[in-house]
Each structure stands twice: as C-alpha cells, then as structure tokens.
C-alpha cells in the first residue's frame, strides 16, 4: 500500500490543519513524532465520513490489548463524541497506520462489561483517559480495531488479474464469516429468549456493514475505472461489461436491503436476514465467477502496481 492511502473512489483523505504537520512527521519518521506527542503510542485512523462520504485521517493514541489495538473516543473529555466515532458507526471499515505498517480493520465499539474492562485496561496504562471520563457525563466509548487479513489465499500479486482474485478471495471469505457470525448471533439470541449478551449485536453489525462497505467500494471502483478502460481497449467486450454493470446494480440493491436489516439487528427477523444473505451470496458468487471467467485472461497481462513487471 502507499504511504499516503487514498479512498477507493479516488479522493485524498482529509486531514485537519492542526494535525497535518504531525501526520506528515509521523509518516516521514516511521510513526515517531516530537513535540507535544513525543513518546506517545500513536496511530493514524482513516475513516469514511458518515455524512460527507470522504475519507478523513485522525491522529489518535492507542493501547494494546493482546494482539488488538484499542482507541478511545475521548475528544479530550468533551460532551460529544468525536467525528471519527460517528464515522466508524456508519462505516466500520477503516485504514490504520501504526509505525510503518498500514492495514485495514473493522472498528467495533465495545459494549457493556467488555467496554468497562477495556476502559479500565486503558486507564491503567494511560491514566489521562480516566480524567477525561471524570470530566464528562458522556460514557466514553472504547473501539476495538479488528484487523482485516486481506491476504486470505496468500496470493502473490504481480498483475491486475492477481489483484482482482485477491479482492474476490477476500469478499468470499467475508461472506463465509458474515454467515457464520449471523448464525452464531441468532442462535445465542434464541437461547437467551431475547437479545443475546450485550456486544454481540454491535459486533455482527459492524462486520456485516464493513463487508457491505467494501463490496460497494469494489464495484464503484470497477464501474468508474476498470470497466470503462476495458471497454475502450476491447470493444468486443461490450456485452460482457454490460452484464457486469447490470449485476453490480442487482448486488448493490441487495446490499442496501441487508444494511436496512442491520439497522436494528437485535430485533431482526432471523429467517428474513438469512434469506437476504443467502440471496446475496448466490448472486455475488455467480457474479464473481462470471467476472473471473470473462476478464482474468485479459488482466493477466496488465502489471500491478502500474509500472511493475507484467506476468
């Protein structure tokens, strides 16, 4: 990935004027900065704006909990949640920069007793967060950054065909994970005779929304860049590209329906939820297979990243 990641739609992330120089220093020095933040555990969290849809990069402190990274929506003890927190509720798929490492993650706010345990863990290591909580009536959220493993198949990426397959492998893996989490969630809800333990609903909501978000980005990117380029270079592909675009519309409609179900997952109808997920799985699986059959032979000769060696 690049050191200065951009949104899949092509826009550069917004950085506040206050943080810009520190962000530049962070990236230039492998995550180390001086001045006010010297010696702190810092990361860059890039989120998609809940209202604007633009990527925004925030400089945040973090605490480790085993292999997990925790960020706290303290806003310095302000009475309202920071903007980045509203962003991850609406769009859970985020990009994280720690040191020289850049990766995608799903942001999941901790709930109930788990939130309290993690907040105590954070305060033990960074007592200032306890002062922030003492100064506001707001219950300050703790957000777990659940790392996304994009290299599901361990595929080496040398050309655009490899990159497309990497994305498709990840989407298939996320579909499998989403179904498994949904089944586990609804089973727990049935045993409990109502909503399952606090936190499970938020977890499945965030992971499902992250899948929907990544699917939307993927298809929007294809419609805006890859397909028009192929259309110009290979006019005979017009019927294939027309079918792919039509399928994108169908899959996007199902995605929106699934997002509507997630609006209140604690009371979502399990039968309808699974039926929508099954329908999306069947149509998306068929779509990915058709796209691979139609485009992989052509894309195998296009280097990735641009300028790299062709396969």
TrEMBL record:
<feature type="domain" description="Hemerythrin-like">
    <location>
        <begin position="161"/>
        <end position="299"/>
    </location>
</feature>
<comment type="similarity">
    <text>Belongs to the F420H(2)-dependent quinone reductase family.</text>
</comment>
<dbReference type="GO" id="GO:0070967">
    <property type="term" value="F:coenzyme F420 binding"/>
</dbReference>
<dbReference type="InterPro" id="IPR012349">
    <property type="entry name" value="Split_barrel_FMN-bd"/>
</dbReference>
<dbReference type="InterPro" id="IPR004378">
    <property type="entry name" value="F420H2_quin_Rdtase"/>
</dbReference>
<dbReference type="InterPro" id="IPR012312">
    <property type="entry name" value="Hemerythrin-like"/>
</dbReference>
<dbReference type="Pfam" id="PF04075">
    <property type="entry name" value="F420H2_quin_red"/>
</dbReference>
<protein>
    <submittedName>
        <fullName>Cation-binding protein</fullName>
    </submittedName>
</protein>
<dbReference type="GO" id="GO:0005886">
    <property type="term" value="C:plasma membrane"/>
</dbReference>
<dbReference type="Pfam" id="PF01814">
    <property type="entry name" value="Hemerythrin"/>
</dbReference>
<dbReference type="GO" id="GO:0016491">
    <property type="term" value="F:oxidoreductase activity"/>
</dbReference>
């Amino acid at each position: 990935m690049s050191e200065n990641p951009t949104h899949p739609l092509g826009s550069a992330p917004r950085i506040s004027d206050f943080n810009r120089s520190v962000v530049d220093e962070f990236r230039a020095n492998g995550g180390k900065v001086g001045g006010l933040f010297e010696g702190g555990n810092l990361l860059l969290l890039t989120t998609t704006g809940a209202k604007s849809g633009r990527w925004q990069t925030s400089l945040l402190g973090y605490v480790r909990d085993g292999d997990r990274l925790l960020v706290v929506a303290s806003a310095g003890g302000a009475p309202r949640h920071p903007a980045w927190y509203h962003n991850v509720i609406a769009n859970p798929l985020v990009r994280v920069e720690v040191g020289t490492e850049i990766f995608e993650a799903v942001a999941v706010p901790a709930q109930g007793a788990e939130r309290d345990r993690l907040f105590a863990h954070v305060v033990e290591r960074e007592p200032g967060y306890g002062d922030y909580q003492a100064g506001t009536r707001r219950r300050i959220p703790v957000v777990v950054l659940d790392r996304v493993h994009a290299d599901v198949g361990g595929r080496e990426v040398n050309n655009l065909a490899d990159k497309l397959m990497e994305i498709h492998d990840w989407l298939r893996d996320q579909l499998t994970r989403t179904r498994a989490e949904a089944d586990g969630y609804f089973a727990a809800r049935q045993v409990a005779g109502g909503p399952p333990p606090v936190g499970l609903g938020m977890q499945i909501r965030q992971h499902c929304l992250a899948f929907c978000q990544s699917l939307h980005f993927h298809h929007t990117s294809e419609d805006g860049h890859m397909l028009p380029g192929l259309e110009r270079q290979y006019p005979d592909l017009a019927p294939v590209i027309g079918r792919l675009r039509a399928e994108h519309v169908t899959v996007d409609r199902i995605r929106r329906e699934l997002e509507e179900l997630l609006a209140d997952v604690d009371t979502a109808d399990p039968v309808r939820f699974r039926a929508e997920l099954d329908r999306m799985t069947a149509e998306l699986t068929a779509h990915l297979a058709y796209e691979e059959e139609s485009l992989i032979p052509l894309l195998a000769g296009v280097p990735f990243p641009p300028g790299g060696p062709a396969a």
